[in-house]
Structures are given as structure tokens and as C-alpha cells.
Specification:
5 helices, mainly alpha, 117 residues, three-stranded antiparallel sheet
Length: 117
């Protein structure tokens, strides 16, 4: 009695799947290019979180602790898109400069910040 190699069966199934995926990808419509973004538009907190790819709570923390420019309207924050992008660039530059500091420098800054007077 001759047995079928299970690996050959798996490879044949994979080839079938690959041809199916190729056919689907050829027939699928192309994605349209992203629309230009108006720099003067106003966005809310969830949309800003989606742009920054961070949770809403983290973006709210940026507003409170890292001076992300936002206006409190009712119970929600509104942010101008251009100000968000400018803040992100400065935030990114600041974190790069901080990452260049050595570990002893960071430790001394931490000690100065949290020392008891």
C-alpha cells in the first residue's frame, strides 16, 4: 500500500490558494489616492488620535502635559490640523535630542526633578 506524502498535499493546496489570491488581486479595483488635506480644518480628539496612531487617552495626555495646542469646547477638544502637524514635528525633534543624551545625564535630570527640597 502506497501512502500519500502529507507535505505534497499541503503544497498542492497552497498552490491552489496562491492562484486564487492572484486572480482576486488582479480583479480587485485600485485604491484611489488620498485626498489633499486642508491644513486649516478643525479635527476632534479621536481623529487626532487616529492621525498620530495613538490612543485617545494618550493624545489627551499630550494636551495636558506636552502642550499639544487644543481648545476645549464643551467636554471635547478641537485641534487645528496644521497646529497638530507643527506640534508633532517639534515633539519628534525634541525626542530625538533627548535620545542623544547619555544614561547618566538622564539619571541626573531625574534626580534633580524628583529630589526633595
Amino acid at each position: 500500500m502506497q501512502t500519500i506524502n502529507p507535505f505534497e498535499l499541503i503544497l498542492s493546496k497552497l498552490e491552489q490558494l496562491q492562484t486564487t489570491v492572484d486572480i482576486i488581486s488582479i480583479n480587485s479595483p485600485r485604491q484611489k489616492p488620498p485626498e489633499p488635506v486642508d491644513p486649516n480644518r478643525i479635527i476632534d480628539l479621536p481623529e487626532a488620535a487616529k492621525i498620530l496612531r495613538k490612543p485617545v487617552g494618550t493624545v489627551r495626555g499630550y494636551i495636558h502635559s506636552r502642550n499639544l495646542p487644543a481648545t476645549l469646547v464643551g467636554k471635547g477638544y478641537l485641534i487645528k490640523y496644521s497646529e497638530l502637524m507643527n506640534w508633532f514635528e517639534t515633539f519628534q525633534n525634541n525626542t530625538r535630542q533627548e535620545s542623544k543624551k547619555t544614561a547618566p545625564d538622564k539619571m541626573m535630570e531625574s534626580r534633580k526633578r524628583y529630589r526633595k527640597d
